[in-house]
Amino acid sequence: MPPRSWLFVPGDSDKKLGKAMATGAHAVIVDLEDSVAVAAKPQARAMARDWLAIHRQHVTENRPVARWVRINAIDTGLWREDLEVVMAGAPDGVMLPKCEGPEQLRMVAAEIYELEQRNRVANGATRILPLVSETATSALTIPSYVDVPMPRLAGLTWGAEDLSAVLGATRKRDAKGAWTDAFRFIRAQCLLTAHAKGVWAIDTLHDDFRDEAGTRRAAEAARGDGFTGMLAIHPDQVPIINTAFAPTEAELTEAQAIVALFAASPHAGTLQYNGRMVDQPHLRMAKQLLGIA
C-alpha cells in the first residue's frame, strides 16, 4: 500500500524526531537538507542514523512506518557524507533533492549499493525518491525517467519553492489559487511519468500548515487527480492528508458492487450499474480502490 502522508522532520531536532512516530505519518522523511544549517549537518547525520536504527520495526495504524532520509543535493558535495553515515541505520529510502535526471539517480544508487554491502543491508532494499522540479534542468528531465531501468526508483515527487526562486517568479498560484502554468506543467509531468513508470506519484506540500482548509483542498485535489500521496511539513497536516487519500464508505461499496457485477458476468465487456454503463476501466479502478483500502 503506498504511503499517503510523507512528513518532513528536521534531522537536527531531537524534540521533533522524538515525536515523529506519533504523528500518524505513513512515511517520515528525516531532513538533512534545507531545514539543517551547514554547521549542524554532521550532528544531524548522526541523529538521523540513530533515529533510523531505533525505529527500524515501528508500526502505526496496523502498518509499518516508512523511514526515509532527504540527503543533500549532488551539487553540494555533501551527499556522499550523508549516505556514509545514515546507511548504517538502514533507511527504507533516500530522497534526492534537485535531481537533474536519471544519471544523478544512478550515481546515488551506485553509492547506496556499496554501502548496503558494508552495512549488511539486503541488496536493493534502499529505494530512491527524486525531487524532480527544483531547478529548471530537473523539471525538463522529468519524461526521461520513463525509459531508463531504475530498480530502486520508488516514485516521483516535486516541489515549488526552490523552482520559484530559480525562476525569479513572484507567484506560484493565480488569483483563484490554481498553480500557474510552469508549476501546473511540472505537476502534470510528474504525475504522468510516475504512472507511466509504474511508481508512486507524490504531490507537493501545502506550504501554509496553519491553513487546514487549504491543506484539505490540496490533498483532495491530489487524490482526485491520481496522486498516491502527498508531502507534509507539519504534523497537523498528516491526519488531513490521510483522510483525503482514504476511500470513503460510499466509494468502497460501489467498488465492491462493480467487482461483484463483473464476477457474475465474467464475459461481459459492459454492464449497467445504478442507471449508468460501466466497463473494464471501471472494473480496474474498482479493484485498485479495494486494493488500496
UniProtKB/TrEMBL annotation:
InterPro entries: Aldolase/citrate-lyase_domain, Citrate_lyase_beta/mcl1/mcl2, Pyrv/PenolPyrv_kinase-like_dom, Pyrv_kinase-like_dom_sf. Mg(2+) binds at residues 134, 162. Its EC number is 4.1.3.34. Substrate binds at residues 70, 134. It holds the Pfam family HpcH_HpaI. PANTHER family: HPCH_HPAI ALDOLASE_CITRATE LYASE DOMAIN-CONTAINING PROTEIN, LYASE BETA SUBUNIT, PUTATIVE (AFU_ORTHOLOGUE AFUA_4G13030)-RELATED. This is Citrate lyase subunit beta/citryl-CoA lyase. It comes from Novosphingobium hassiacum. The lineage of its organism: Bacteria, Pseudomonadati, Pseudomonadota, Alphaproteobacteria, Sphingomonadales.
